[in-house]
Design a protein that fits this description.
Helix content of chain B: 25-40%
Order of helices and strands of chain A: HHHHHHHHHHHEEH
Structural class of chain B: alpha/beta
Radius of gyration of chain A: 21 Å
Largest interface: A-B, 26 and 30 residues
Number of strands of chain A: 2
Number of helices of chain A: 12
Strand content of chain A: under 5%
Largest sheet of chain A: 2 strands, antiparallel
Structural class of chain A: mainly alpha
Shape of chain A: globular
Strand content of chain B: 25-35%
Largest sheet of chain B: 6 strands, mixed
Oligomer: heterodimer
Radius of gyration of chain B: 24 Å
Distance between the termini of chain B: 45 Å
């Protein structure tokens, strides 16, 4: 298994999709920060001496400086994740290269290696970006003369980064599951990408706007909220990162569930789609 | 039969049907063939005959609808790991275009779980030592084909399956490929199963062939048997008219330039000689009719084209 993962690593660390969709986070962040700090130092961004960034407390400063972890779970972040997963899984159909590798390894191993490498590369990209975001926040405060509150410890920072990463995890895994399944079923990078975009967008729109339709079909909307993964992704992220459940203000009363329920729902959806991906690929004729 | 002589590839009543009901298309039907150790086996057929489908089933890329595949004596369906003994070139060598030829082989070696140490020698063997570090997207069709052969040999397989290995190669490349395939069988004892539309190449390379048409194997035999015309003898004699008169009471005879084609089995040769001598004909030659593989192939797969 490790050798297959290393083969995938050899492939994808050199692919431009990895540069454009994964390494873009730390690189783009660095470029944006350099531009911003350049503007600030040249006076275009306001006076030195503080921009109100961060808070007077250590907790506020840490929360601001690990804020990058909200990106992978954000709709835009999920689009990028979906695009990368589409390339990793459907690329083999486009290059017509499944024929090269399928005879030599169990199909389950090949798919598992793809999940592993997609996750590992994205984890590295997001972690690097989050750490740089943190570093740049500190540097900015140093350069601009903003005070850094006392009481910030490495342990507290690491804990905050861990919580941020965990909060992003349900959205990342669910997006990987959607898009990988779409890639295997459609055998097309573009189709997988489009399906990923549509599903993620619909999921987000439903989460934001479904309460508006609750007066017309209360039980249906409520059932969808409980069964579909959109609410549960948001709820899990909220509980992990902020310690509070998401309440939906239905007319019949506020709707919320525990994190255990939300994690179970997201886990069930993810597991079902991943299992279907393995099953479909095992049965697929590679012409 | 000892284990060493047991077929390394056995296809038993193999079939593949796409779709179901009224829209079902039978791509391959009841294919039964076997390949012996160290044998070069040709798989011939016109486009759409079922060659590629059969090869894909052999490689576990397509699931058969019927029948059984045994490789090295092991059932492919229940033990797909047996494919580790197989090297293959399918579809003219498709590779990761954004990687160099060498990196592609490294990816495959890691996927196989071995063969890293053979990469340099294989690149050298297929004439890509200098171009190994170039990206595959800049390779010509022939170069991809060569890389495909290197990829097929990477895991030092016992069985090599090559789908149209000479595609895209120039005359010198085809000659090198022919020499390589012969060497694989003769010196390294590998069994080679290849499909090709270059009948001349198959005739020179293969020990046995199967001819497939419309999904069905219509003939499996050695090249020598296939080329031998069982019911055709060529008579070179003077005067030809007298010879024809002496023979046509028993056999169907047709003039073929300065010779006479007699539709008779080889066993009738002594009787033909007796009749010709009895008729006072001077006999210069009597031989079994030989056809080339192309004529045999066409007569079996497209009778109307062969007669044209």
């Amino acid at each position: 298994m490790l050798s297959v993962i290393s083969a995938e690593a050899l492939k994808f660390t050199r692919h431009r999709a990895t540069w454009g969709l994964v390494w873009i986070w730390p690189i783009g962040l660095t470029l944006i920060w350099l531009l911003a700090i350049g503007a600030e130092l040249s006076g275009a961004g306001g006076e030195a001496g503080g921009d109100g960034r961060g808070g007077p407390t250590a907790a506020g400063w840490i929360a601001d400086n690990v804020g990058f972890w909200s990106v992978p779970g954000h709709t835009f972040g999920r689009y990028i994740i979906g695009a990368f997963v589409a390339v990793v899984f459907a690329g083999e159909y486009g290059w017509n290269t499944w024929k090269l590798v399928v005879p030599h390894r169990a199909r389950n191993t090949l798919i598992a290696a793809k999940y592993a490498i997609a996750f590992i590369l994205m984890a590295i990209g997001f972690t690097l970006a989050a750490l740089l975001f943190n570093l740049f926040g500190w540097l900015e405060d140093v350069v601009t003369g903003d005070s850094i509150p006392a009481g910030i410890t490495a342990g507290a920072l690491l804990k905050a980064h861990g919580a941020g990463a965990l909060a992003a995890l349900p959205a990342v895994l669910l997006t990987m599951a959607y898009v990988s399944l779409a890639a295997i079923l459609t055998r097309s990078t573009v189709a997988a990408l489009v399906i990923g975009l549509v599903v993620t967008t619909v999921e987000q729109l439903f989460f934001n706007f479904a309460p508006m339709f609750e007066p017309y079909a209360p039980s249906l909307v409520s059932t969808f909220y409980q069964v579909l993964p959109g609410y549960h992704v948001a709820n899990a992220a909220s509980v992990i990162s902020q310690g509070r459940v998401v309440e939906i203000p239905f007319q019949s009363g506020a709707f919320s569930t525990s994190i255990a329920t939300s994690l179970a729902m997201v886990g069930a959806w993810t597991f079902a789609m991943v299992a279907l991906t393995f099953w479909s690929f095992r049965r697929q004729d590679i012409n | 039969m000892s284990a060493a002589d047991s077929p390394v590839v056995e296809l038993e009543s193999l079939g593949k049907t796409y779709g179901s009901g009224a829209r079902a298309v039978r791509a391959v039907q009841d294919v039964t063939i076997s390949v012996a150790p160290g044998e070069v086996y040709g798989f011939l057929g016109p486009n759409g005959a079922g060659k590629s489908t059969t090869i894909r089933m052999l490689l576990g890329l397509i699931a058969p609808s019927a029948g059984r595949i045994r490789l090295m004596g092991r059932d492919l369906a229940s033990d797909p790991s047996v494919l580790r003994h197989v090297g293959s070139l399918v579809d003219g060598g498709n590779f990761y275009p954004f990687l160099s030829g060498r990196r592609n082989l490294e990816v495959l070696a890691r996927t196989h779980g071995g063969g890293q140490e053979r990469i340099d020698s294989l690149l050298d063997q297929v004439g890509l030592a200098k171009d190994g570090r170039r990206k595959v997207k800049g390779y010509s069709t022939g170069m991809r084909q060569r890389l495909g052969v290197a990829a097929a040999l990477l895991n030092d397989p016992d069985i090599v399956i090559l789908d149209e290995p000479a595609n895209g190669l120039d005359a010198a490349g085809i000659q090198e490929m022919r020499a390589l395939i012969r060497r694989l069988a003769a010196e390294e004892g590998k069994s080679v199963f290849l499909s090709s539309h270059l009948l001349h190449e198959v005739q020179q390379m293969c020990d046995r062939v199967a001819i497939i048409s419309q999904g069905v194997v219509i003939r499996e035999s050695t090249i020598a048997d296939l080329l031998r015309q069982d019911d055709g003898l060529i008579v070179e004699a003077q005067p030809l008219d007298t010879a024809q008169s002496a023979l046509e009471s028993r056999w169907r005879c047709t003039r073929n330039g300065v010779a006479l084609h007699v539709q008779a089995p080889r066993d009738d040769a002594p009787e033909i000689v007796r009749r010709l001598v009895g008729a006072g004909v001077e006999l210069f030659g009597l031989s079994a009719e030989q056809r080339n593989l192309e004529e045999v192939f066409l007569s079996m797969t497209q009778p109307e084209a062969a007669n044209a």
